[in-house]
Structure formats: structure tokens, C-alpha cells
Design goal:
heterotrimer; A mainly alpha; B alpha/beta; C alpha+beta; B: alpha/beta; Amidase signature (AS) enzymes; eleven-stranded mixed sheet; 15 helices; 13% strand; globular; C: alpha+beta; Arc Repressor Mutant, subunit A; ten-stranded mixed sheet; three-stranded antiparallel sheet; 39% helix; 17% strand; elongated
Chain lengths: 107, 490, 485
């Protein structure tokens, strides 16, 4: 009998940071329930996943030829940059990478 | 010239024979959309100018005596997660609202090369996450067969467009049933080809190892024609197999079940299905028998018991990964932040709808330390066991019949509440994606209330031609579905 | 207390391909306008897919074979997830559990001793973009915003991970130098730390008295070999100091501050990152069947250490001479061509290490740009060996060949080094000329004031110099004596 795991709030809070998405406190339970429902569905499944079973891999009928090392220039570059939300000349510009103390507290 | 109800093959032949022009076909399509779609909301972007210009080019080429292409003059729509050059592509999400890609998906390129004319982009669940096409920022699509019901999802707009007679063919994407289930709810023929059959390049990804482009049409012959046009290797997608495909049109034309071994899926409670859908299964089996096939009952215990768990692990894990590139920097919705993390967070919070955000969180959770080793890794192994179970099945059978959905098209805003039926529904739709099998959602008539009853046909991986051959035979006996009667009334 | 130093190195080598690892953008990004070597794939535009570069796989296998690794067939890529401005997909495609090359080793010579350092593996991964910070020192700390250039994003890297078997900064430096030399020999990478085609992350710990491994500290941001030496010295001293004072070391990543000469804790608030590695399903397993590996193996050139040892045994060079000449493969090839053209091995080695190296250094040339063919140089050196020219004359000839782009014959003629000995009337004329330029000395000798003969020797020396050594010394002495009478 393999140990059952259950997703908890602490891990969910870490996941919110990891995925750069916020979630109102009142929705935590719903997400936890969703995760745990799936985990419970998986519990039985784990019992047949023996050591010797290999992880899934596609069978290939005919492998495509590997890409030759020939450079190509993308003609859409200028248009793309012109429309980019954070464009700054030839660069993309991002705000302060290391957050200030006060900004971290709000996060 | 009444073009409504003509198949893609008939339109292409007609344009080629100069019975009518591509422009006429395209304008007829556009007119129908303009007239009715306010009520059905299947189309989120109509490219009238571009379409008419393309149609004119096709007509000029025909006039010059050039080889016009297998789909010349055929109007079609694609789901709004297909990148279309110069045409807005939003995945029906605020995250990509107004985004105009500067490249065409390979599938769109192939359609263009074949002379088809893109009329517009079809409605979908946001980022393909849903099965009712109710989560789009453009509002819900209504089922052309019954406006109080959903068209299914996530390719609801594409399926509805065909059922409504806007276009003879449409393209959707199928990750866990997203072409076949809407085909069933809208009463058209839909197909998910084998994984690796059609290039995924330019289809905004949901789950890398589950996604496939899926054609929708009013008849199997058109599905086969689309397969001929689309199913080719692509240097831009190394998961797309490079093998030499047989003629799918040729296979469909053979339309034979003689000597075929047909397996009927058992091992679940047939009473869980809506009665008309259970009857449709029986009818399909009867037709196969009458057409010379032998029938065996089969059970797929591993598949039935574990495919849903396996699917959720794979699909949600991959989705959380593939949606991480939306950060407001290079494209898509941007919100300012005082620092990098805040910019990411605000852009993603504002850009993604609630359902999408929740699925990203769930998917991220299951990939984290501990859960990955104890749940995700076993799921990858069980996926192999499911695939093996099908390989064994297809050693003694050429085709499997099973339901596509336990329920007829739901009423809007309701969805499936019964957990057993929800589970079964998930099983039926996801198994083809997990094992990469080709699957057709075939219409076998309508209920007295006019609701469609489809069944699902599965074949071994890369056996798409054999599958179309069988499907065409069943369709010949059962009849192809008719176009829906639309109404402009409220 | 003297604790044993334990060092492990992770070296990132940029592979010398023309395109990126997963798209066809050019890899020629040094000096390029920002964000011009980009495309929808490496910008992570929705709907795009990675496509592996054929040559990158070849080079990774080549390097793996050079490092005596086992090449694995059917290895997969994994996704390593994290958010950062230089990572468009928010995951890096790398190899996690199954590297394309496993095991392996590298023999190094450090402080005169030979040592074998074992490797854990070599794997393929893509590089991230570059960030530019508008701070005074260009560093991230204190930057109110940053600029992102994705030209470098997607470049192919091979990461070489050693076992923690190096026990001194000298061994670490020798290891890095050997990796770099191998990479250049195999034409797998430019291996330049300055331009970033070779980057090193250092792991260093001090073993506990009972022999168990101590707390491991990772050092990053070290951009030259010299800095690696300094950083290691500093960190080893720091760790010893902390332990001597009874403190505990943290397992952490520290950044090297080259200006201040110290390592600093990174103090990241995110804690240990969870990268959520899992298989990249957009890419098929990498095909590396035995036939293919054999073909690559057959295409390998002579290994630098084999060449070094062979030059010692075949050409009788000292180890130090051989190391110098075989340091760069093209120089070694050039040397062998000289010897093939008839020059004796020892003399040829000397000429390589002195005359040729001087020109290359002074004019900042690579041997491949050196305009004098090895054959010609070989002929020139042979003439010296046959005493047709003096060493001094030959140097003049070489200078003329190089500086004035003359052929060997033209240069010899120009320098008056016809290969003949200066004698008879010509020699007498030179002696007269020298006498005319040194009237006091001549006078003194004639007056008998040169008791020890120093002034005569002085005049003889001047004559020898005038003839560029092409006269016979005995004849010079006779002629001078004659004309002094």
C-alpha cells in the first residue's frame, strides 16, 4: 500500500509563487479539492505502475530527418518588436528584477 | 446556385468545372454567417475582405487553367487557437485579445495550398480548457440543433459552424475529446487523427503529447479529403511522423466492413448512457454485422479504470507548463508591475480567466516535489500500460466501437453533474488521446427532439485509413447528418 | 587546521554550430544588434515547437567521446521550469535524468603530477538570453529596470559535470584548461571564457576530520581562469576561517566579486527552487545508435594528450616543449609540416617557440593567419642545419619573407644570404670597412698598444656581425691580422 499524499495550503502557497498567479484565500479549498480528487483517482493507478514498466514513449513509424545547421533570418522581427508590450528600442524592458523590501511584503 | 449542403468535394469539383465560382461559394458562406451567427455566436472573427480576395485569386487561377487544388474554393473556419497570419488569434482569452500572429499554422498553410478559403475563426473554450464553449471571452456558442443547449467543447464553434451549414468543413483541436465531443453534440462527423498524423506547428498548445488537429465535416468523405490535405510530415514539428501516408480518400471510397473484426467495448453500465446513445451503439453494431463484419465483446480493464487519472496528470501538468510563456513581455496582455514578479503576476491574473488560472495551479501542484515522483511518474508508466492494452486489442480487432459521451448535448449552464457519467465521459473521450489512436465521432441519426446521437470508432495508431474505410461504410448505411435548421428568432 | 579541499566543476561549453539548438537562428550573436538573431521559436511565440539541430548532437557526441564517456542512445530532453526575464518559455529545455554522454574521465597534469578526474556526465541544453542592467557597474544589484536581449537565448550548450575529485585550485585550473584544449582540438567550441563560450560553476567544500564531505558551496559569476584561481583561494580561506572559529557553513550559492576579490552570499528569498522537471514531449528521443557513434569516433582527430606524448617520443622534445607546441592543434600541425619538409625536430621546435611565436604575438596573429607556409619555413631551417646559412642570417630571411612578403629565394638574395660563405675579396672589403669605422682601435693595435688582443677580438666581432655570420671565423681572424700589417 503506497503512502497517500494530500495537497496542503503551504504547498499551494508555494505553487502560487512558482506559477506567478494569485488566488483569493476563499478559493484555496476549491483548488485543493481539485488536486486531491485527482490524487485520489491516481492512488489505485499507482499500484500497477511497477518498477519494470517503462515510462510512455511514442512509437515512430518514420523519424523525420534532423534539422540541418543552416541559419535563416526571420523577416518578421521588426514588426514583432514594434508590437511587443515592453519594447525599448532593440530591447525588451522589464521592471526592477530584485524587488524592494516593501514590494515583497505586498506580494 | 444553392450551395448550402454541398460537401467540400462537391464545391471543389463545382469550382473546378466552373459550375460556380469560388467567390460565389465564399460569399454564400459569409452571408449565412452574417445572417444567423448573431444568434449562435460560433464565429469570433469574420475575415470577409481577405476571404473574398482569396476566392478571387482561386477563380483567377482556375481561369488560367492552373491545377486548382483538392479544396479549391472551399470555405472553411478554424478554431481560434490556430495561428493565422495577419488575422487575430485570441484562443478566446483576454491574454491574447487582439493578438495578430505573423505566421500561419502548418495546417492553415496546407489548406491554403489546396485552394481552401479561410472565412473566419471559430469560438472555443478559453485556451481549450472546457467542454461546452461557455468560457470564451466572446460569450457562449449555441448549439445549432437546439439553442437551449451547448455545442460541446472546446472546439464548439468549429463543430457548430459545420452543423449550421456556414461551411462544409472546419478544423478544431482535440486534446481530450475537444473535436469529437462537439461533433457529437452538434451532430456532425468529427475526427481526431492518430497522434503524429498532422503537424501541431502553429496550434497554440494545451498538452504537447495529447493535442492533435481534428477535421470536422458533414460526411466522412470530406474528413478523408481533409486528411489527404493535412496529414503530412513537417520539418517544424518533429513529433509529426514522416511516413508516407496512404490515400485517405481512396480508403473512404472503398467504404467496406466486409471481413472486418469489430470490437464492442463492454465492462461499464450501459444504463449510464442516455437511452438514445445506447441505442445508437446497438445500431452501429447491427450495421457492422449486416455489412459483413464479425463482432466481439471486449473489456479494457486498465483503460477503463485508470485512463482518467492518467489523463488529468498528463494534461494538466503539461498545460501548466505550456501556459507559462504568457508573461506580458513579448506579446499578449501586459500589466505594469513595480518589479518583475509583480508584472508577471498582474499580467497573468488579468489575462487568464478563472478556470484557466485554476487549471494552471492544479497542474503546477502535481509537478512539484513529492507529487511528481509519487503521482506523475506512475501516470507516465500507466499510460504505457494503456497503450499496450490497446495494442493487444488491435491484434484481434480492426476497430473498436464505444460511446463518445454518455449524455446528449447538455442544457446551457448546466453541464454534467452525475459523477459516474462525468467519469465515463472522460474515459470515452480521453483514451484516444492517451494512446494516440485515430478516432471518428460518427453521427447515427437524431432523437425525436432533434438531438444528435453519435458513436465513437477507434482504430490502431496510424490506422487512420482503415478507420475511415469502416466509418464510410457505416455512414453509407446510416446516412450522413443533415444541416441544422437555423432561426433568427430569439 | 589543514582540511582537504574538494572541488567539483560544472563547465558550460557553447557548441560551435551555425544555428541555435532548437531553431534556425544564427549563433553569431557577439556584436550583433540586440534581438536580431531571434524567431518565433526562440521567442516562445504561441504555437511554436522546438526542432533539434543535427550538428549540435554531433558535437555533443564528439566531446563526449573525447572525454571517454559512454554515449547513450535514445536520451530525452526535460523541461526545467522557472520564471526569469531571460527565459521566454519560462522553462529551459535541458537533459535531466538521462544525459547523452555518461561517465567519462579526463587526465590532467597539475603541479607536475598526473591525475585522472572522473566525470559524472555531459548533457545538452539551451542557453538563456542576456540581461543588460543600467547600473554603474553593470550588475543586477540596484537596477531599477533591465533590458533583455534574446540573441543568445537558445544557443546550444553542452554541460560537463565532473565528480568532486579535484583537491586544489591548481588541479581545477588544469582541468579547465584541458577541457578547453580538448574542445578546441575537436572544433566543438571556441572555449573562450572572455566571450562566454566557456563558463564555469565551481563547487567547493572542505572535508570533515572524519573524511566525510563538508558543506558544499557553489561559486558563480567567475569570468576568467585567473579569477577562478583567486576565487577558490579566497573561498577556501573563508571556509577554513569559519570552521576554525567554530561556525557552520551554509550550503549556498555565492557570487564572486572580482573588483573586491571576495565571494558574497546570494541571499535569495525564494529558497530552494523546485524546477518541476519532467519530460519534454515536443521532442523525440535523441537517436545515437552505435553506427552513428562509431562514425563520429572515426572522425575524431588525434587527442591533445596523445599528440603531446607522441611529440615527446617521436621528436625527442621535452614535455614542456611539447606542451607548448601542441597547446594549439594548428600549431602542432604546422610544426609537423616543418619537420616533414626536412627541418630537424629540435631546431624546428626552437624556431616555433621563438621566432614564429614572437611574430604571432607581436602582430596578434593566429597560426592559421601566418603567411609563411610550413614547407618554406622547413626549407629555411634545413639550410641552417646544412650550414648554408647562419642562424642570424636565417632570422633576417624570415623577417624579409614575412615583412616584405618575399619568397624564400628573393628574401635570401635581399639579405645577401646567398648561402655562400663570405670570403676572399668580399671579406677583405668588409674588413677594410670595419677598419675605417674604428680608426682609434686600428691605430692602437698598429702601435702595439693591444697587449691582450682585446681590440683585435673587438674588430673581428664587428666583421662577423657585418657578414651576418656568413664568414668563417678562422678566415676572418687571418684576414684581419693580414690587413693590420
Amino acid at each position: 500500500m503506497i503512502e497517500k499524499m494530500e495537497m496542503d495550503r503551504d504547498r499551494l502557497r508555494e505553487v502560487l509563487t512558482m506559477s506567478r498567479i494569485g488566488l483569493p484565500e476563499e478559493d484555496y479549498q476549491e483548488v485543493l479539492d481539485r488536486v486531491n480528487d485527482i490524487l485520489r483517482l491516481c492512488d489505485k493507478m499507482r499500484e500497477i505502475a511497477h518498477e519494470e514498466v517503462k515510462p510512455f514513449e511514442w512509437e515512430v513509424k518514420k523519424a523525420p530527418a534532423r534539422r540541418a545547421d543552416e541559419p535563416k533570418r526571420w523577416s518578421g522581427r521588426d514588426e514583432f518588436l514594434a508590437k511587443a508590450p515592453v519594447r525599448d528600442g532593440d530591447f525588451f524592458r522589464v521592471p526592477r528584477i530584485i524587488a524592494l523590501e516593501e514590494e515583497e511584503e505586498d506580494a | 446556385m444553392e450551395l448550402l449542403g454541398l460537401s467540400a468535394r462537391e464545391i471543389a469539383a463545382g469550382v473546378k468545372a466552373k459550375k460556380f465560382t469560388a467567390e460565389e461559394a465564399v460569399r454564400a458562406s459569409i452571408e449565412r454567417i452574417k445572417r444567423y451567427d448573431k444568434k449562435y455566436n460560433a464565429i469570433v472573427a469574420l475575415c470577409e475582405e481577405e476571404a473574398v480576395a482569396s476566392a478571387k485569386r482561386v477563380d483567377e487561377a482556375v481561369a488560367r487553367g492552373e491545377e486548382p487544388g483538392a479544396l479549391c474554393g472551399v470555405p472553411y473556419v478554424v478554431k481560434d487557437n490556430f495561428c493565422t497570419k495577419g488575422i487575430v488569434t485570441t484562443c478566446c482569452s483576454k491574454m491574447l485579445k487582439g493578438w495578430v500572429p505573423n505566421y500561419d499554422a502548418t495546417a492553415v498553410e496546407k489548406m491554403k495550398e489546396a485552394g481552401a478559403v479561410l472565412i473566419g475563426k471559430a469560438n472555443m473554450d478559453e485556451f481549450a480548457m472546457g467542454s461546452t464553449t461557455e468560457s470564451s471571452i466572446f460569450g457562449a456558442t449555441l448549439n445549432p440543433r437546439d439553442r437551449t443547449r451547448v455545442p460541446g467543447g472546446s472546439s464548439g464553434g468549429s463543430a457548430a459552424a459545420v452543423a449550421a451549414g456556414y461551411v462544409p468543413v472546419a478544423l478544431g483541436s482535440d486534446t481530450g475529446g475537444s473535436v469529437r465531443q462537439p461533433a457529437a453534440f452538434c451532430g456532425v462527423q468529427g475526427m481526431k487523427p492518430s497522434y503524429g498524423q498532422i503537424s501541431r506547428y502553429g496550434i497554440v498548445a494545451y498538452a504537447s503529447s495529447l493535442d492533435q488537429v481534428g477535421p470536422l465535416a458533414a460526411n466522412v468523405g470530406d474528413l478523408a479529403l481533409l486528411m489527404d490535405v493535412l496529414a503530412k510530415g513537417d520539418p517544424n514539428d518533429t513529433t509529426c511522423d514522416a511516413y508516407e501516408r496512404p490515400s485517405f480518400t481512396g480508403a473512404a471510397a472503398k467504404a467496406s466492413l466486409a471481413g472486418k473484426r469489430v470490437a464492442l467495448l463492454t465492462g461499464y453500465d450501459r444504463g449510464s448512457l442516455d437511452a438514445p446513445l445506447s441505442a445508437a451503439i446497438d445500431r452501429a453494431v447491427e450495421i457492422c454485422r449486416a455489412e459483413g463484419a464479425s463482432i466481439i465483446d471486449v473489456k479494457l480493464p486498465i483503460t477503463m479504470e485508470h485512463s482518467v487519472a492518467c489523463y488529468y496528470m498528463v494534461a494538466l501538468g503539461d498545460a501548466s507548463s505550456k501556459l507559462a510563456c504568457y508573461d506580458g513581455m513579448r506579446y499578449g496582455h501586459h500589466a505594469d508591475g513595480r518589479n518583475l514578479s509583480e508584472m508577471y503576476k498582474k499580467s497573468r491574473m488579468e489575462g487568464f480567466g478563472e478556470e484557466v488560472r485554476k487549471r494552471i495551479l492544479v497542474g503546477t501542484c502535481i509537478l512539484t516535489r513529492g507529487y511528481y515522483e509519487n503521482y506523475f511518474v506512475p501516470a507516465m508508466k500507466v499510460r504505457q500500460l494503456i497503450s499496450d492494452e490497446f495494442k493487444n486489442l488491435f491484434e484481434k480487432a480492426d476497430m473498436l466501437i464505444c460511446p463518445i459521451s454518455p449524455a446528449l448535448a447538455y442544457k446551457r449552464g448546466l453541464g454534467e453533474k452525475d459523477p459516474v457519467r462525468m467519469y465515463l465521459g472522460d474515459v470515452f473521450t480521453t483514451i484516444a488521446n492517451l494512446a494516440g489512436l485515430p478516432s471518428v465521432s460518427l453521427n447515427l441519426g437524431f432523437t425525436a427532439e432533434g438531438l444528435p446521437t453519435n458513436v465513437q470508432l477507434l482504430a490502431p495508431r496510424f490506422g487512420d485509413d482503415g478507420l475511415l474505410c469502416c466509418a464510410a461504410a457505416i455512414e453509407r448505411a446510416a446516412g450522413a447528418p443533415h444541416i441544422a435548421e437555423l432561426t433568427e428568432d430569439d | 587546521m589543514k582540511r582537504e579541499v574538494v572541488i567539483g566543476l560544472e563547465i558550460h561549453l557553447q557548441l560551435k554550430t551555425r544555428t541555435k539548438l532548437f531553431c534556425s537562428c544564427s549563433t553569431d550573436y557577439i556584436g550583433a544588434t540586440p534581438n536580431t538573431n531571434v524567431c518565433p521559436v526562440c521567442l516562445a511565440v504561441p504555437g511554436t515547437l522546438p526542432v533539434i539541430n543535427d550538428r549540435a548532437v554531433d558535437l555533443a557526441v564528439k566531446m563526449g567521446l573525447g572525454l571517454h564517456c559512454d554515449i547513450q542512445d535514445g536520451t530525452r530532453f526535460h523541461r526545467k521550469h522557472y520564471f526569469y526575464a531571460d527565459l521566454p518559455k519560462a522553462y529551459q529545455i535541458t537533459q535531466y535524468e538521462h544525459a547523452i554522454a555518461q561517465g567519462g574521465y579526463l587526465d590532467i597534469i597539475a603541479e607536475g603530477k598526473k591525475k585522472r578526474v572522473h566525470l559524472d556526465h555531459l548533457h545538452l541544453e539551451e542557453d538563456a538570453g542576456k540581461l543588460v542592467h543600467p547600473t554603474a557597474d553593470g550588475r543586477l544589484s540596484g537596477a531599477a529596470y533591465s533590458l533583455v536581449d534574446y540573441n543568445r537565448g537558445g544557443m546550444p550548450l553542452s554541460e560537463i559535470v565532473s565528480r568532486p575529485e579535484m583537491n586544489s585550485p591548481a588541479e581545477a585550473l588544469a582541468y579547465i584548461a584541458q577541457i578547453r584544449q580538448l574542445a578546441r582540438y575537436l572544433d566543438v567550441s571556441d572555449g573562450e571564457m572572455e566571450s562566454g563560450s566557456l563558463r564555469v560553476d565551481v563547487n567547493v567544500s572542505l572535508s570533515n576530520p572524519d573524511g566525510s564531505l563538508g558543506t558544499r558551496v557553489e561559486l558563480k559569476n567567475i569570468n576568467s581562469l585567473r579569477s577562478i584561481g583567486r576565487a577558490l583561494e579566497y573561498e577556501i580561506a573563508r571556509q577554513n576561517r569559519v570552521l576554525d572559529e567554530g561556525g557552520e557553513l551554509e550550503q549556498e550559492t555565492r557570487l564572486w566579486d572580482d573588483a573586491a576579490g571576495v565571494t558574497r552570499s546570494m541571499r535569495s528569498k525564494e529558497g530552494a527552487r523546485d524546477y518541476r522537471y519532467y519530460v519534454e514531449m515536443d521532442l523525440a528521443p535523441i537517436d545515437a545508435k552505435p553506427d552513428y557513434v562509431r562514425r563520429i569516433r572515426e572522425s575524431l582527430p588525434e587527442m591533445p594528450w596523445d599528440k603531446r606524448d607522441r611529440f615527446v617520443s617521436e621528436y625527442g622534445l621535452s614535455l614542456e616543449e611539447s606542451q607548448q607546441i601542441t597547446e594549439q592543434r594548428e600549431v602542432a600541425d604546422y610544426y609537423e609540416e616543418i619537420v616533414k619538409a626536412g627541418a630537424p625536430a629540435a631546431k624546428a621546435a626552437n624556431w616555433m617557440r621563438t621566432e614564429v611565436q614572437r611574430i604571432l604575438r607581436d602582430d596578434a596573429l593566429d597560426i592559421t593567419e601566418f603567411p609563411i607556409s610550413a614547407r618554406r619555413l622547413g626549407e629555411l631551417i634545413s639550410k641552417v642545419e646544412r650550414k648554408e646559412l647562419s642562424n642570424t642570417q636565417a632570422k633576417d630571411v624570415l623577417a624579409a619573407m614575412y615583412g616584405e612578403k618575399l619568397s624564400l629565394e628573393e628574401a635570401m638574395k635581399k639579405c645577401g644570404a646567398s648561402g655562400e660563405k663570405m670570403t676572399g675579396g668580399a671579406l677583405e672589403a668588409v674588413v677594410e670597412k670595419v677598419f675605417a669605422s674604428q680608426p682609434e682601435a686600428v691605430d692602437a693595435i698598429k702601435k702595439g698598444a693591444d697587449k691582450k688582443g682585446a681590440k683585435v677580438k673587438f674588430l673581428q666581432g664587428l666583421v662577423m656581425r657585418e657578414t651576418r655570420g656568413s664568414a668563417d671565423p678562422a678566415e676572418v681572424a687571418r684576414t684581419v691580422a693580414e690587413l693590420l700589417k
